What we know:
The structure is a homodimer. Chain A is of the alpha/beta class.
Amino acid sequence: MFHVKRAAELDAADELAKQRALFSLPEGLVYLDGNSLGALPRAVPGRLQDVAGREWGELLIRSWDESGWWTAPERIGDRIAPLVGAAAGQIVVGDSTSVNVFKALVGAIRLADDGRDEVLVDATTFPTDGYIAESAARMTGRTLRPVCPEEVLGALGPRTAAVLLNHVDYRSGRLHDLPSLTAAIHAAGALAVWDLCHSAGALPVGLDEHGVDLAVGCTYKYLNGGPGSPAYLYVAARHQERFDSPLPGWTGHANPFGMTPEYAPADGAVRGRVGTPDILSMLALESSLDVWEGVDVASVRAKSLALTDFFLECVQAYVPEGRLELVTPLAHAERGSQVALRCDDAGEVMKALIARGVVGDFRHPDVLRFGFTPLYVGFGDVERAARVLAEVL
Amino acid sequence: MFHVKRAAELDAADELAKQRALFSLPEGLVYLDGNSLGALPRAVPGRLQDVAGREWGELLIRSWDESGWWTAPERIGDRIAPLVGAAAGQIVVGDSTSVNVFKALVGAIRLADDGRDEVLVDATTFPTDGYIAESAARMTGRTLRPVCPEEVLGALGPRTAAVLLNHVDYRSGRLHDLPSLTAAIHAAGALAVWDLCHSAGALPVGLDEHGVDLAVGCTYKYLNGGPGSPAYLYVAARHQERFDSPLPGWTGHANPFGMTPEYAPADGAVRGRVGTPDILSMLALESSLDVWEGVDVASVRAKSLALTDFFLECVQAYVPEGRLELVTPLAHAERGSQVALRCDDAGEVMKALIARGVVGDFRHPDVLRFGFTPLYVGFGDVERAARVLAEVL
């Protein structure tokens, strides 16, 4: 009973607890999979009705101007910017994360000195980054070298053009040291490209502060943009003038309606745009970002650590020793906003958890993954999740 | 008055007239811009509510399986297939047209014989195709050669790897001869890549019948998928096994949830997938395709030609000779589903038309463009558009 009481105390003192009312979540569900698909912000369905019914159905083509459709990619980019520590004008929304990895990595290779023929990629990355990095290297005549994040320092050298790393490992939940890795990459004369899929919206990133060169991220995890919502691309202001996109679509043109046969790239973040923006998804994302109004990322991080700490505490109290192996690092400096636990029968265990209203996810072959989203997960949820996990085990 | 009476007769005899009730269009508006943004199918807002509120909000992550989200790209591709004359299993939906042009053209270059170092592109194309083709050529070490469609035959040769052409010219509305151009490209040993943005949903394409190699198209014009809705990629079945995408994202992997570091491409159209599908836009598109149930593309084409013929007839009757120059070819075999008219003050004329409830669009510097979408434009609309045009002029 100690942990139930403690959860109630923590919830009562939680300054972010009021944000949960902004989300629509099924009654009684403990949703610890927001690191895969964020929950639905309540305002989104109404906004979608307005976009489809009025902006599309009534205003039709006029909405490209009058409803601000045309400028949505950079406008929404500026809404995401403060969440990842970027000044305005450096982020543009659109395309999938994979497509943005391609833009960012080819862009980084082209920004690097010509003689540098090697690209390092996080070997533990979410696979798509590695697949796309392989294509980016192949199409620019570079060699791709997969290395574990802890091997990056030793692998950097005069041949390194660019390094693609994940801020938080999607499987283990390990948080990598973005400031020091970026500094080391720069010291070696290379460019740092960061994938923020599992960190943006859960912890401070500090893109500008730490001098990151390029970055990408999805918006459907901690940013709650909806299933497969558009991803984003960050190109640091100092690189924008030389950023040479491998996907120079017409909406990234300096004068897109001039319809000229020569490509003249736009200034600023807009250069990262490709085709016609996908308005329904994009404006749903814009609406979903309202839940961040007045929220400080530092307080999100504080709650996130408190949630994962408390989960580990409850698991330790409830689950017999030796039944689970902790995959996520204990040190706060190395922990994202998820807890990964290993057990042989993880697939079956997750099915049983879901059947009892505790939703996490299973990562092949033996990992239970629980994501803690500070805007709508409370300490009571955490206690219940650990209790149900113990029951299932 | 003759043309008013004639319009009423044509509308009364129009077997597609009943489809208009499936669309939500503002009262009294003559919408001739469906070749830029198709009108809203009535069913879409309700479907979006269900996708956002129930599938996302209640089922959450389970919807990837239970609501069929994961297979949406290939399922919706199979819905588009009959509209462009393709058997099932060759079309996948996702990404923008620009991104798909990149996949298709790089794919075609890689399918062509190694020694072929030249890529031909329609010099009159919608600009993004040319910009992306330039990048595709650059990144594969080929030379891009822009040629007018009528110059293609003379430009083909042993150096030609691939040719990217538009089925219908976005500006003039000219329909190019896909069967004979494709045959000529094949006779030269090259691959034909067609952009169907301005033909799919307006006229028969016959991708399989004419042996097209790869094709792309958008879904927000004659297919009414919504602003910036996902585009599609066609890879002919005979090429799929060797199709080597420059954007090998995880969702095109043979075993995407295996999360293996090596890329093993899926069989079939699925290989053309890249990142996580954008579900809100994709399922809105799927819903919008219901308006095609029971509709035969041949009857759409017959009505489209009748609409453009009647528009030209009314314009000739109402507008003083010499005031407008016809840009679109008169021959049916060379006409898409739009009429482009040139006049010096086209920008001002279009503004005045729109102010009077007749919506077409203006293409820099001097073109009035009117799109005729057979599913929701009637002959009465056409007569009124011509009459208002004459008044404005």
